[in-house]
């Protein structure tokens, strides 16, 4: 247990004192009484050295701060929830209860997913860990005990969307294996929902897990298969999103021509107007501003001087509710300024990005910033 708790703290670059500050802020928000700084200092040290049992209230606080599960933080499985009881009476009761999951209930669950999605893009993943986990359990149970295919498909559709959201959140806070499993669940649910668009989206987001794991070639193959599977079956905005992701992964591999070709295809498929979403895949947000930002990211990866202009244009017109996305954009912009030799501008964008990463708890963006800071320091030497 000790190594995992300490590793979670150090991965964020926090001292024990910083963790204590976070605990002090989080406890009253969660309806818990305050603890003295002296006591907290003892608790944190003993927790990390496996000399004190962590109570459930403190576990909830730590899960909320880090956005990680019991397994990832404490090295033990959370209490198991039996899905299929051995007694047929229990099974019968569950199946009967599932019959109450009508289209109205499915719509309610979809709206709840949408609330989580809105909170995530503005405030980040850590504070949603427990709520989203409970939401996912509700959806999985509903699907597990719904019998008729016609009733299962709407539930599976909502589950696929919720699972992709949970996958991205897990990836953002360093829960890599959990992210992978969520995307696998999203793909299974998309197949159950008979939705090629949801399947392609889940595959596209899963490719980013491969990117972060250093499997760029495999990620590129996966995104290309997702693009191929979406042709003539998915909405135009979803296809545009997939093509933009393909462009990014081609750029990571240094394939300039393939990357620009994919960007051109994304622009050609993106519907005109101010809209940014399609009801078929609510997890996709894409309009001209988002595509401009993506183009700037791709050009940054390729080392092209036009990157800074694209990113500045995207920043000016960006929706302020996309807090974590703004952090990613500013990292790209810092990288672009660094490539142009503008060190002061690069440092300022990195500073702003670090503040946003801290606000949203994005370990993924923090890792990018740590690498960028080393590059800036090297160029400054």
Commentary on this structure:
The protein is mainly alpha-helical and 381 residues long. 75% of the residues lie in helices and 0% in strands. It folds into 4 domains: 2-74; 87-194, no CATH class; 199-273, Serine Threonine Protein Phosphatase 5, Tetratricopeptide repeat (Alpha Horseshoe), CATH 1.25.40; 287-381, Serine Threonine Protein Phosphatase 5, Tetratricopeptide repeat, CATH 1.25.40. It has 19 helices and no strands. It is flat and about 60 Å long. The two termini are 40 Å apart. The relative contact order is 0.07. Mean pLDDT is 88; it is low at 77-87.
Q: What is the topological layout?
A:
Layout: H1 2-11, H2 16-29, H3 37-48, H4 56-66, H5 70-74, H6 88-98, H7 103-123, H8 129-145, H9 149-172, H10 176-193, H11 196-212, H12 216-230, H13 236-252, H14 256-269, H15 288-302, H16 307-316, H17 323-339, H18 343-360, H19 363-380
Helix pairs in contact: 2-3, 2-4, 6-8, 7-9, 8-9, 9-10, 9-11, 10-11, 11-12, 11-13, 12-13, 13-14, 13-15, 14-15, 15-16, 15-17, 16-17, 17-18, 17-19, 18-19
Query: Could you say which overall geometry the principal axes of the C-alpha atoms support?
Result: flat
Poorly predicted parts: 77-87
Helical percentage: over 70%
- Strand fraction: under 5%
Number of strands: 0
Give the helix/strand class.
Answer: mainly alpha
Number of helices: 19
Distance between the termini: 40 Å
Please summarize the sheet with the most strands. none
What Rg do the Cα atoms give?
22 Å
Any idea how many domains?
4
List SSEs in N-to-C order: HHHHHHHHHHHHHHHHHHH
Arithmetic mean of pLDDT: 88
């Amino acid at each position: 247990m000790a190594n995992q708790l300490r590793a979670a703290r150090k991965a964020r670059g926090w001292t024990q004192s910083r963790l204590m500050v976070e605990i002090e802020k989080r406890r009253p928000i969660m309806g818990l009484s305050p603890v003295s700084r002296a006591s907290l200092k003892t608790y944190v040290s003993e927790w990390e050295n496996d000399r004190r049992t962590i109570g459930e209230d403190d576990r909830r606080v730590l899960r909320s701060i880090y956005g990680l599960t019991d397994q990832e933080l404490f090295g033990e499985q959370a209490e198991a929830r039996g899905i299929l009881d051995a007694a047929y009476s229990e099974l019968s009761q569950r199946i009967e209860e599932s019959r109450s999951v009508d289209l109205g209930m499915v719509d309610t669950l979809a709206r709840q997913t949408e609330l989580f999605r809105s909170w995530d893009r503005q405030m980040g993943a850590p504070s949603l860990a427990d709520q989203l986990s409970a939401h996912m359990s509700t959806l999985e149970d509903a699907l597990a005990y719904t019998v008729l295919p016609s009733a299962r498909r709407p539930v599976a559709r909502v589950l696929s969307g919720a699972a992709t959201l949970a996958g991205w959140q897990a990836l953002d806070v360093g829960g890599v294996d959990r992210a992978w499993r969520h995307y696998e669940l999203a793909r299974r649910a998309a197949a159950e929902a008979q939705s090629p668009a949801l399947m392609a989206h889940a595959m596209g987001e899963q490719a980013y897990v491969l990117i972060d794991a250093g499997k760029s070639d495999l990620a590129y193959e996966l995104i290309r298969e997702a693009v191929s599977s979406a042709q003539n079956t998915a909405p135009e905005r979803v296809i545009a999103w997939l093509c933009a992701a393909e462009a990014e992964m081609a750029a990571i591999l240094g394939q300039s021509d393939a990357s620009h070709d994919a960007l051109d295809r994304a622009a050609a498929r993106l519907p005109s107007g101010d809209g940014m979403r399609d009801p078929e895949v609510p997890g996709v947000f894409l309009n001209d501003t988002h595509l401009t930002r993506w183009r700037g990211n791709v050009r940054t990866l390729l080392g092209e001087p036009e990157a800074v202009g694209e990113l500045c244009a995207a920043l000016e017109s960006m929706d302020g509710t996309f807090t974590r996305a703004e952090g990613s954009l500013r990292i790209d912009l810092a990288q672009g300024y660094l490539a142009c030799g503008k060190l002061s501008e690069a440092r300022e964008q990195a500073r702003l990005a670090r503040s946003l990463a801290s606000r949203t708890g994005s370990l993924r963006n923090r890792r990018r910033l740590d690498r960028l800071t080393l590059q800036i320091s090297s160029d400054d030497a």
